């Protein structure tokens, strides 16, 4: 497996790594959710670092497994809060979660079976769905939770 800096995807390795830096603009200002989002970003950084160090498939696979598992935990937590506080767009939000999990699990299956390699595109996909989902979908349910004093 080549080093990430050697891959030709148009972005220098430093730019890719910086994609997984937590930014205040991602904060939903509900501590438990922000902490979980930060953990997802940290797992993305860990996956990138392992890939760029040329670590083997088993190491990358374990990190990817942790990312997938933690995503499921996080989504379940968010969905529990939304149901508890009767978020009106719960069904739509859950459908987004389900679609994201399906995409990542499909990649994980391909990776574990040898049909896909860890590539910068995968990292960009992970970063993209983290960022877009937080800043669009998650920001949409925050007023509902804040109105009910969820902190």
Secondary-structure map:
Blueprint (H helix, E strand, L loop, with lengths): L12 H6 L12 H22 L4 H28 L5 H24 L6 H28 L4
How far is it from the N-terminal to the C-terminal residue, by CA? Answer: 44 Å
Largest sheet: none
CATH second-level architecture: Up-down Bundle
Measured by DSSP, the beta-strand proportion falls in under 5%
Mean pLDDT across every amino acid position: 84
Q: Would you kindly provide a written description of the structure presented here, covering whatever features stand out?
A:
The protein starts with 12 loop residues before the first helix and ends with a helix. It has helices at 13-18, 31-52, 57-84, 90-113, 120-147. The relative contact order is 0.16. The protein has one domain (29-147): Hemerythrin-like (Four Helix Bundle (Hemerythrin (Met), subunit A), Up-down Bundle). With 151 residues, it is mainly α. The model is unreliable at 1-11 (pLDDT under 50).
């Amino acid at each position: 497996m080549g080093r990430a800096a050697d891959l030709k995807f148009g972005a220098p390795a430093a730019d890719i790594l910086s994609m997984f830096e937590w930014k205040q603009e991602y904060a939903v200002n509900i501590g438990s959710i922000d902490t979980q989002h930060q953990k997802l970003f940290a797992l993305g950084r860990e996956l990138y670092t392992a890939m760029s160090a040329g670590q083997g498939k088993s190491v990358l696979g374990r990190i990817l497994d942790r990312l997938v598992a933690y995503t499921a935990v996080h989504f379940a937590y968010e969905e529990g809060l939304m149901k508890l506080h009767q978020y009106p767009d719960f069904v739509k939000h859950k459908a987004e979660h389900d679609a994201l999990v399906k995409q990542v699990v499909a990649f994980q299956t391909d990776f574990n079976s040898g049909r896909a390699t860890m590539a910068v595109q995968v990292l960009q996909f992970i970063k993209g769905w983290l960022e877009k989902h937080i800043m669009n979908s998650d920001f949409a349910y925050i007023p509902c939770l804040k109105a009910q004093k969820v902190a």
